[in-house]
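re: that complex we talked abt at group meeting.

here r the seqs, copy pasted straight from the sheet so there may be weird spacing, ignore it
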Amino acid sequence: MTLQTIAFEKREQLKQKPNSDQLGFGKYFTDHMFLMDYDEQKDWHNPRIVPYQSISVDPSAMIFHYGQTVFEGLKAYRTEDDQILLFRPENNMKRLNQSSKRMSIPEIDEEEVLHYLQQLIAIEQDWVPSAEGTSLYIRPVVIATDPNLSVEPSKTYTFMIILSPVGSYYPQGIKPVSIRVEQQYTRAVKGGTGTAKTAANYSGAYKAQEKATEQGLSQVLWLDGIEKKYIEEVGSMNVFFKIDGEVITPELNGSILEGITRKSTIELLNHWGIPVKEQKISMAELHAYYHNGKLEEAFGTGTAAVISPIGELIWENEKLVINEGQIGEVAKKLYDTITGIQTGKVKDRYGWTVEAASKTMNTSPSL
Amino acid sequence: MTLQTIAFEKREQLKQKPNSDQLGFGKYFTDHMFLMDYDEQKDWHNPRIVPYQSISVDPSAMIFHYGQTVFEGLKAYRTEDDQILLFRPENNMKRLNQSSKRMSIPEIDEEEVLHYLQQLIAIEQDWVPSAEGTSLYIRPVVIATDPNLSVEPSKTYTFMIILSPVGSYYPQGIKPVSIRVEQQYTRAVKGGTGTAKTAANYSGAYKAQEKATEQGLSQVLWLDGIEKKYIEEVGSMNVFFKIDGEVITPELNGSILEGITRKSTIELLNHWGIPVKEQKISMAELHAYYHNGKLEEAFGTGTAAVISPIGELIWENEKLVINEGQIGEVAKKLYDTITGIQTGKVKDRYGWTVEAASKTMNTSPSL
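got the structure back, here u go
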């Protein structure tokens, strides 16, 4: 890793920070952001931290027309002794590059960008909230910027990192959700972009989400795009089921996103000696396990919620009430352990946390 | 249709126009563009024609993260007597709204927007090139602008129309292309976004195109995402085959774009009494027709090329040379007729052309 000199333009008038009970998700942004540009001659260049501001984009820029873009999502957490921790951020950098490969976007230097992110968080450390369940959400995103309507990979890109203090996902305490099994719309299919964290996989899902919302349900369970039989994901989370003492999650089949919370969940279950399998599982099989009393728990995993217990699954006209609509033991233990490690309350035996910036650090690092 | 008052801010210093042999595709943009905004209170509002310029977009704007966007592509042609014609533009406006429905984007008033487009073209009429094969490419696009990272439909949008003079698709005369049948990557699948003209369907195809380019082939033939057996599209065009005197094109199955040149091709073939069928056709069937000598022609249809004859199909390790690599009679007649109607050289018996603006019109319409 050869670090490029990073320029820092400080905002003159800092913003007022919102109260932690107003945060919500992704509504407020911090004082500064990170930017870096790419072109074929200079590769990734001009890394800089500047005041958070609108960017100027040509109306013909490829991002507006052909969706060549990738992003990541991770969080920084404030510990009780005012450390700021990141959770397995090297995995996000690695996945960003995997997504970029799929979308024909030039890869970044993972270590280098992680270092820039740490510098940005050091500058913005006062923005990391401290209330229970809150965190600083980190959104790296790469966009194609060529002002050119040809349907082909862009020759120029902008990489941005923006930061948003976010509220608790469970302001009223963790509560299982009701999920609609989607039979008509498809999120992703083998050979498509489902394994990449890219724009294409998100807004295409809004129609299915609308149908769930109309029925008063909070999210969608996606089935495979080929046979509409096998379970893939829930909303924008991976999904796990506890069946007869064993935990099962759909295997990475080429259309499922490789979640970092998914990976951490599998690793924790292994450490705990709870059997866990990555395999194909159909909705019909799950339905059978439900009716013979073997479906014990269901939950989603993702950066936003960490663990989201599923209380009800609505499949066609049947409602499957799981674990009497209560959070299960395994889901609870996973939630407490992962959020505990993230916030420094539970000892990190696995080396998952990385210090982003500490209160005692110089707030104007030599940039 | 109630037309809103449209504001016009004229560019002070007009750009120098490129020579028609330098045009290429989508590289040069005219002096002005059309903009219109949407919010929940005001619906679509503030239609305006302003100097072509970069727009200012918040880094958290939903377009950069979740790909909620739709677009269209059509062309204005200059006739020998200096009329400017559009080709079936009401179909583009209709399809824009169909795409918007799929992507949870508020629909536009089709007639109203067509009227605004005509005003924009009236202002930019000197940009419509006159050389053989050239035209003014028109790109309407809607982008989601909410500065909010929630995975949900935006509450605000910007609609833009930009114009680009484009060169001949066939500067050396119409020439059949070599196409690679793609077996690994998938363009679209039933239940996904394949029928919508939206960013998601384009950059996801770059990897497959890269593989074709590496083999010196110009485009990709897409198979269905479910069984990888049935033919769907070619590159970003619809595809037709002449087999034993009959023309066959894949039926609109929920993952194929409903092309306007496709529709015009089917209508012309019907007028000419050439049998044409929309039906499922597998690559294996096509291969069999090839080997028993019944595959007579293959061609793509789309706005950019109009008709693109296919000279060779490379499927796995076999090369299928179609019609000795020459353009077929039907493809040639379609090309001559459609481009003839578009440019006023062939009488428009079908009411397909709409006058966009004529040289004798006031170049400063009362806006």
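couple things i noticed - Helices of chain A lie at 63-66, 89-102, 110-123, 206-214, 260-271, 283-291, 329-342. Chain A has seven helices and 19 strands.
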